[in-house]
Amino acid sequence: MSLDAQAIGERVRDYLDMQLRPVGVKFLGSPVNPITRLDEPMRYCHAVHEAARGRDFVFTSGDQICKKAEAILGFREPRIVNVEPRIKSRTQAVSVGPLQDADQVILVLNPQQAMTMVLLLGGIASEFTGRFSICGEITAQVALQGQPRLSLLCDGARRYGEFTTEEVALGLPYDLFLQLPEKMSKYGSMAHKARSGLKSLFSKMR
User: Fold this and answer.
1) Distance (Å, whole) CA 15 – CA 33
2) To the nearest 10°, the Cα dihedral for 158, 161, 123, 15?
3) Structure pTM?
4) Are 30 and 92 spatial neighbours (Cβ–Cβ below 8 Å)?
5) Is residue 200 classed as helix, strand or coil in its secondary structure?
């Protein structure tokens, strides 16, 4: 029986020894119940970091303090200058936190954990700009390209989103996130075979 997203999240967190939980992100094309909305506006990057700590959020138009992130996430058109990357379709709401049936998943990692994920995924192609990291480099790029994206984050994410200097972020399409248990098992088997091979080689050299 296949694991549900929550169980996969726990397995990934245990496998990587993550301090924070994986965060699901889902774009909603219709308005949501006002009860589920934020009590007060906040920054998207801060919401992602808070969701990694265990909270769940639903953003609607006007809930976002950072107006550039509001445009990048598709809530409105840019007012003065074009902002890229950005989601062109009109977003009504964004759910941040729950993993089940998400569009993508964000992992808050340290460099060693990120290295392990790169190995599991067979490599990750990423471009770093140091701007709009969580909203643009991660969320928008994963939505637009359907590929995993790694970000070294930006000053705004660290200053306002409360990401530490030891943290980076990895965004995964949901279907790729669901494949992680299989990839972890294969990688573990390969590592075991490699260790066994080296042990056999060393024993023959004695």
Assistant:
1) 36
2) 110
3) 0.88
4) yes
5) helix
Query: What mean pLDDT value characterizes the chain?
Result: 88
User: Domain containing 168: what range?
Assistant: 5-205
Give the dihedral sign, CA 148/154/156/158: positive
| Angle subtended by helix axes 180-205 and 5-16, to nearest 10 | 30
| pLDDT at res. 198 | 40
| Number of domains the chain contains | 1
Q: With beta carbons less than 8 A apart as the criterion, state whether 151 and 128 touch.
A: yes
The DSSP line for 57-115 is EEEETT-BS-HHHHHHTTSS--SSS--SS---SPP-EEEEE--TT-SEEEEEE-HHHHH
The contacts of residue 22 (CB under 8 Å, 6+ apart) are 9, 12, 13, 52, 99, 105, 106, 107, 177
Question: Which residues are bridge partners to 64 per DSSP?
Answer: 42
DSSP 3-state assignment of 49?
Answer: helix
